[in-house]
Amino acid sequence: MLDSAEPGAESSSSLLRRLAHEMRDALSPLASSADLARLRNFDPEAGRSLAEKVERSLRRALAILDAFVLSEQCENGDLQLAMNRVPLEQIVQTARESLGESAGERYRFTSGDAATVVGADLVRSAQALAAVLQHAAALGPRECLIEVRVGGTVMQPRVRVRGGIDPGSTPADEWFSSQRGGEAGLSLRTVRCLMRLQRGDLQLVASDHGDWELVMSFAGDGVEARAPSHEPQPSQRAEPARPDPISTTAGATILIVDDNREVRRAYREALLALGYRVVEAADAEQALGTLAGDTPDVALIDIHLPRMNGYRLAQTIRARAGTAIFLVMLSGMALDAVTRDLAREAGFDDCLDKMSGPVALRELLATGKKNSLGNDES
To answer: Which of 42-51, 115-124, 202-211 holds the top average pLDDT?
Structure first.
């Protein structure tokens, strides 16, 4: 989990080697799983097992990539944070929920003052705290309970995480030297950098007896409230009328716009199996050409297209076809708040991570209550 072999800052070449190691580690089980399926002549049980392992490995690989991108953004200081006044207990609860069933088995939470408010990005802070808790659990024996205490002062609220440690290991600042996060996703180095960007910190408090605590501190309630504005907030902006949810059984036509042939092929085959009609386009010019014929019900648009990118293509389609087409952004990167805001501004109706797949697209289209951009359907 924690790598203390390389103290000091890592060079870009070292970071690339780390990333390569993590990706190989995540994807290597796929070869042996495929071999096992072949040896068993792809019987139903072997096929199900292979599909599960493929999904787990790919999700882990994407989580690793997202963690390394976030690490680079933090260290370069160009990570955009959604700073607000947030109850500290809400951050703790969000982190706790993200741990799933293990939260009740490995951690003991002691609540602080429920009225404590901090200046923070709720999502990123909860992500950071969850990583700290996972690192703490990895340090010690399985039977060791991790103590999580919320406290501090009004000006500097804190979350203190205390646990055991394996014999022969010593608490040290070298825990913060590597960008390798292991199963926790984010490294302690990235967590510290992320907290400092929010005017907080992450510190190791250790004694000569091997006792230790990881202490996350937050900016207190002195964060300035945002000035009132007559401009509507993103979630309150007037949106054009939205198309009705697309039926999953009515043979709706979906336009897939992606310059990667294999991505188009994979989505086309699955969407055809789900009962949709599919039209493909490798770039914006081809996509706009399809509008001259039968208008598709849905356009699934990759952002990184040659010449005209996906944002501009969405704006152009919206200008030509109005609300007749349901626009879905297909993203190869994590769908963070910045990406969603850009999608909203470009006129997209919703967003989909490429990893989610066609079944997730069907569920998205069939849900008519609220989309991932936070806008109510008409």
So the answer is: 115-124
Is the pTM of the predicted complex or chain greater than 0.85?
no
* DSSP codes, 58-97: HHHHHHHHHHHHHHHHHHHT------EEEEHHHHHHHHHH
Amino acid present at 92: V
Do you know the residue count of the chain?
A: 378
For residue 348, tell me if it sits in a domain.
yes
- Please tell me whether residues 97 and 29 are part of one structural domain: no
Separation CA 146–CA 159 (nearest Å): 13
Annotate 202-265 with DSSP letters as a single string: EEEEE-TTS-EEEEEE-B-TTSPPPPP-SSPPGGGS--PPPPPPPPSSS--EEEEE-S-HHHHH
- Residue 203 sits at the vertex; the CA angle it makes with 125 and 164, to the nearest 5 degrees, is 95
Task: Let me know whether 111 and 197 are in one domain.
Answer: yes
Q: Answer yes or no: is 41 within a domain.
A: yes
Query: How many folded domains does the chain comprise?
Result: 3
pLDDT band at 356 (very low <50, low <70, confident <90, very high): confident
Tokens of 18: 């780390």
Q: Which domain holds residue 294?
A: 244-366
CB 152 within 8 A of CB 217: yes
- Which phi and psi angles does 357 have, rounded to 5°? 90, 170
Strands (E), the chain: 84-87, 107-110, 117-120, 146-152, 157-162, 201-206, 212-217, 253-257, 277-281, 298-302, 326-331, 350-353
Shared domain for 351 and 268, answered yes or no, is: yes
